[in-house]
Specification:
Organism: Blastococcus mobilis
Number of helices: 8
Radius of gyration: 19 Å
Strand order of the largest sheet: 5-4-3-8-7-6
Helix content: 40-55%
Shape: elongated
Pfam families: HTH_IclR, IclR_C
GO molecular function: DNA binding; DNA-binding transcription factor activity
Largest sheet: 6 strands, antiparallel
Function: May be an activator protein for the gylABX operon.
InterPro entries: GAF-like_dom_sf (IPR029016), HTH_MetabolicPath_Reg (IPR050707), Tscrpt_reg_IclR_C (IPR014757), Tscrpt_reg_IclR_N (IPR005471), WH-like_DNA-bd_sf (IPR036388), WH_DNA-bd_sf (IPR036390)
């Protein structure tokens, strides 16, 4: 290809493979897929990791798309995100009986971009635009777990414990909070993905802990299913084929 830059072509090929894999490939598999030497692939992946275009799960060595891509000119507009998620968020609130919030990363902060009140007559405050802690809220944990920035960053918990929890969130596909942010209140959230599989937002419910979790602290199955199904539906609405 006349005028092309080989390293950029190779990096683009790696990103395409990583996107298609859904975070299931390590450096050897990626090298084989793009037809490059393992050392060359590792060098390119290291650079992509540094700029946030890929993320590496340190426990498995596998690579996924990174949140740095979200800061490019192709950023998903917050208004579009809200519009695509609105119907599913409304339905989730009606079915679960709990408040529903949609959050995304704005710079370094987790920001609520859509909020559906719980369907009752109690007084409630709109939280659109409110920043949330990343380490103590279900919405924040989902976004933090899928951000390359979580590596090496301190949280309010011990580093090892926080890293283990974030790895578990990535593996199971949802996060919880049980009174960590507000005493007595709980939350369950799941990731919302864009067309390439990148996590662009988190969707979740919040309410009394007793309504969301059983006596062992396990999420009540019907509510958990509602949350993950709604997040998958929004992801499909955004063009993510993997659901």
């Amino acid at each position: 290809m006349p005028g092309s830059v080989q390293s950029i072509e190779r990096a683009a090929a790696i990103l395409q493979v990583v996107a298609a894999s859904g975070g299931r490939l390590g450096v050897t598999d990626i090298a084989e897929a793009v037809g490059l030497a393992k050392t060359t692939t590792h060098s390119l992946l290291r650079t992509l990791l540094l700029v946030g275009f890929v993320d590496q799960d340190r426990s498995t060595g596998r690579y996924a798309l990174g949140t740095g891509l979200l800061r490019l000119g192709s950023n998903l507009d917050v208004n579009e995100l809200r519009a695509r998620a609105s119907n599913w968020a409304d339905a989730l609130a009606a079915r679960s009986g709990h408040a529903v919030r949609l959050a995304t990363l704005v710079g370094e902060e987790v920001i609520v971009v859509h909020h559906v009140f719980r369907p009752d007559d109690s007084a409630q405050v709109l939280e659109v635009g409110v920043p949330l802690p990343r380490a103590t809220t279900a919405l924040g944990k989902v976004l933090f777990a899928h951000s390359h920035q979580h590596t090496g960053q301190r949280t309010t918990r011990s580093g090892a414990g926080a890293t283990a929890e974030l790895a578990e969130v990535r593996a199971r596909g949802w996060a919880t909070e049980r009174g960590e942010h507000e005493p007595g209140l709980g939350g369950i959230a799941a990731p919302v993905r864009g067309p390439g599989g990148l996590v662009v937002a988190s969707l979740g419910v919040s309410g009394p802990q007793s309504a969301l979790f059983d006596a062992r602290g396990v999420p009540r199955s019907p509510v958990l299913t509602m949350v993950t199904d709604a997040a998958h539906s929004v992801s499909r609405e955004l063009g993510h084929g993997g659901g």
